[in-house]
Design goal:
Helix content is 28%, strand content 23%. By secondary structure, the protein is α+β, with helices and mostly antiparallel strands. It has three domains: 12-39, no CATH class; 65-172, 60s Ribosomal Protein L30, Chain: A, CATH 3.30.1330.10; 176-341, PurM-like C-terminal domain (Phosphoribosyl-aminoimidazole Synthetase, Chain A, domain 2). Strands 9-11-8-12-10-13-14 form a seven-stranded mixed sheet. Strands 1-2-7-5-6 form a five-stranded mixed sheet, with helices on one face. Helix 3 (121-138) links the parallel strand 5 (105-116) and strand 6 (141-150). The radius of gyration is 20 Å and the shape is globular. It starts with 30 loop residues before the first helix and ends in a 13-residue tail after the last strand. Pfam families: AIRS (PF00586), AIRS_C (PF02769). Belongs to the HypE family. Residues 56-168 form the PurM-like N-terminal domain. This is Hydrogenase expression/formation protein HypE.
């Protein structure tokens, strides 16, 4: 397969050049994923990929004068069922949230399934029912799809790819490139919950209490934020790579720095304990029902009030600020008064988490 490729002609940096085969880290949402997109996919697509594509979870295009949001995502979570959710509702909520991060009202979804031969029909039925329930709750319709089956041992139960279409309201201009010095950085609640929920189920770990995934559709919360009239600069749901990956991507896209206050980060005790036990960084653990917002400082209080009035934003808080210093870098102020760099993850701490 690689015989016709001239690796020396590629401009890609480490680690892609040194990994002639795909590794798990390439799907982790961190630096390796970015290298794969920037130095393999986009050059391969050439002029078929518009400038700026591949750098966001959602594209906004204009069709007949109407602004449409378009997003696609694949889900390979293991196990398929975990405390608080399943691959079915995750597939719906994840794509709805990608649309919502552009300010869009989600309308339609498609769903493609790759099924491993031998998967129990009862399990597949549970996945389909979870997808239906999540779609009804989100107010979207599943309008088309596809199904393929692979040999036993060639897959792992059920993989799902969902594509979503949504309508972008007039005046909404929300994307990472709009991050500006002076913006307040807000988050809608506790972080790291989804990753720990899946890990605890996968590994049979117990933390003294059941940790349930936070998977949820966030477009209602975003609508409440938009209703304040604030000029929302950036919205992002910190899934793969967690808060650390999302903030680093925003900092680089906006050519700004991000200063966090570590004690203000909402890390619940069970997540902190699990991460301490396993040597994980809560900032790099996946979330599926939280969002990060960059808003002008003068609008922060109004937006926070609207977020806290919504059931999915009751735990919202300000966690830092966008600054002109150290562009492209995220820095956290520690409880001891020092600072530390919050790096972009290279790969993924917890593979197969969404």
């Amino acid at each position: 397969m690689t015989a016709g490729l001239d690796f020396e002609g590629w401009s890609c940096p480490l680690p892609l050049r040194d990994t002639p085969a795909v590794v798990m880290g390439h799907g982790g949402g961190g630096a390796m994923s970015g290298d794969l997109i920037e130095h393999l996919f986009l050059p391969g697509y050439g002029s078929a990929a518009p400038a700026g594509s591949g750098r966001s979870d959602c594209a906004v295009v204009t069709v007949g004068g109407t602004r449409i949001a378009l997003s696609t995502d694949s889900f390979v979570v293991k196990p398929m069922f975990f405390p608080g959710g399943s691959i079915g509702d995750l597939a719906v909520n994840g794509t709805v949230n990608d649309l919502a991060m552009a300010g869009a009202t989600p309308l339609y979804l498609s769903a493609a399934f790759i099924l491993q031969e031998g998967t129990a029909m009862t399990e597949l039925g549970r996945v389909a029912e979870a997808m239906g329930a999540a779609a009804r709750a989100a107010g979207v319709q599943l309008v088309t799809g596809d199904t393929k089956v692979v040999d036993n041992g060639s897959g792992d139960g059920v993989y799902i790819t969902t594509t979503g279409v949504g309508a972008v309201p007039e005046g909404a201009d929300i994307h990472p490139g709009r991050a500006a010095a002076g913006d307040a950085v807000l988050i809608s609640g506790d972080i790291g919950v989804h990753g720990v929920a899946v890990l605890s189920c996968r590994e049979g770990l117990e933390f003294g209490t059941t940790v349930a995934s936070d998977t949820a559709a966030l477009h209602g919360l975003v609508a409440a934020m938009l209703a304040t009239g604030a000029d929302l600069h950036v919205l992002r749901d910190p899934t793969r790579g967690g808060v650390a990956a999302s903030l680093n991507e925003i900092a680089r896209a906006g050519h700004v720095g991000v200063d966090l206050v570590e004690r203000d980060l909402p890390v619940p005790a069970e997540v902190r304990d699990a991460c301490s036990l396993l040597g994980l960084d809560p900032l790099q653990v996946a979330n599926e029902g939280k969002l990060i917002a960059f808003v002008p400082a003068e609008s922060a209080d109004d937006v926070l009030a609207a977020m806290r009035a919504h059931p999915l934003g009751a735990g919202s808080r300000r966690i830092g600020a966008c600054v002109a210093e150290h562009p492209g870098m995220v820095v956290a102020r520690t409880a001891l008064g020092g600072t530390r760099v919050v790096p972009l993850p290279i790969g993924e701490q917890l593979p197969r988490i969404c």
